[in-house]
Structure formats: C-alpha cells, structure tokens
Specification:
The chain has 171 residues and is of the alpha+beta class. The chain has helices spanning 2-12, 19-32, 34-37, 70-89, 121-134, and strands at residues 42-47, 50-55, 94-105, 113-118, 136-147, 152-164. The protein has a single domain, classed as Thiol Ester Dehydrase, Chain A (Roll), CATH 3.10.129. A six-stranded antiparallel β-sheet has the order 1-2-4-5-6-3.
Length: 171
C-alpha cells in the first residue's frame, strides 16, 4: 500500500499536486506518521523541490502561554523539509533520516502558521548527483515559518542524510 501511494504521488510531483492529491496525501500521512496526527498539519502545496504546510492554532499545539509550542513549530519545520526531500528523491530508491536540527524563533505564534521549504533546481540536481555517485550524502534545508499575518515566526534548519536503500545496513 505504501509503495502504491508513494509511486502515485511521485509521478505527479513534476507539477503541483491537485487538491484531490493533497487530500489523499494528508489523509494517508496521518496513518504513516502517527506522531504528526495530533498537530493537524495540512500540506497545502507540494511539487518537486517545494513544500508548504499549515499548522492550525489549536489547543494541542499550545504552550503554557497559549501560544504555539516551540516543539510544534520545530516539528512543522522538520515535516516541511522531509516532504521537500520526498518530492525530490522519493522513498523507493533512497531513505533519509534527520541528522541535525536547529531552530531560531523570531516572534511568538498566536495564530495559525505555515512553513515553507524550497530547494532550487541546481540544488536538486546536485543532491541527486551526489547520492547517485556516493550512495549517500548530507543535505541541509531551511524552513521559514510565518503566521497568517505574515509575521516571521521561526526559521528551522535541518540536516538530513540521504542514502541509497541498497547501502542501508539496518532493517
């Protein structure tokens, strides 16, 4: 089932995913990544090298001051970057795991926010070439998070190891 969903989404990533594809993807990602389900993330845009995801302003995401919790914002940043990697490499031939994560908070989140992670074509091509040549590589991505009034809330930087499945030694 997972490979069917992966191949369906991967085949459409050279253009933007349709509204139906996004509904389908959001539904199945709640199942495949249960940790993220409580946050209520919604992928609003996704194409090769681009992911934009919304985080609702709801109680499950609050801190003790009734603002968005730092951990929810970090998870949003990680999720955006991971979906961006998925859009470029897919899961069939490569696996990627988070190696390093850092956050810089600019403004307190007091409403719904969205995170956006971009990878330009030269960076995509470099990533693909490196992982094909070496069997693995590191890639650093930056997710910018804004609220619905365009306040810059946070910058989340993630470093991922992308590796050819044939080189993975653990199951």
């Amino acid at each position: 089932m997972r490979s069917l969903i992966q191949s369906h989404i991967q085949s459409k990533l050279n253009s933007s995913l349709s509204r139906f594809d996004l509904i389908f993807l959001n539904f199945f990602l709640k199942y495949f990544i249960p940790f993220n389900g409580a946050h209520g993330f919604k992928i609003s845009e996704m194409k090769k090298g681009h992911a934009k995801i919304k985080l609702p302003f709801k109680r499950a995401n609050f801190n003790h001051l009734k603002g968005l919790h730092a951990a929810a914002l970090v998870t949003l940043g990680e999720y955006c970057a991971g979906m961006n990697l998925l859009s470029v490499l897919g899961l069939k031939d490569y696996r990627f795991i988070l190696q390093e994560l850092s956050a810089k908070y600019h403004y307190q989140g007091r409403m719904a926010v969205w995170g956006q992670c971009e990878m330009d074509f030269p960076a995509q091509n470099k990533l693909i070439d490196e992982v094909k040549k070496e069997g693995k590589t590191l890639v650093t991505l930056r997710t910018e998070i804004y609220d619905t009034q365009s306040q810059h809330i946070a910058t989340i930087t993630t470093t991922w190891q992308a590796k050819d499945w044939r080189k993975v030694k653990t199951k």
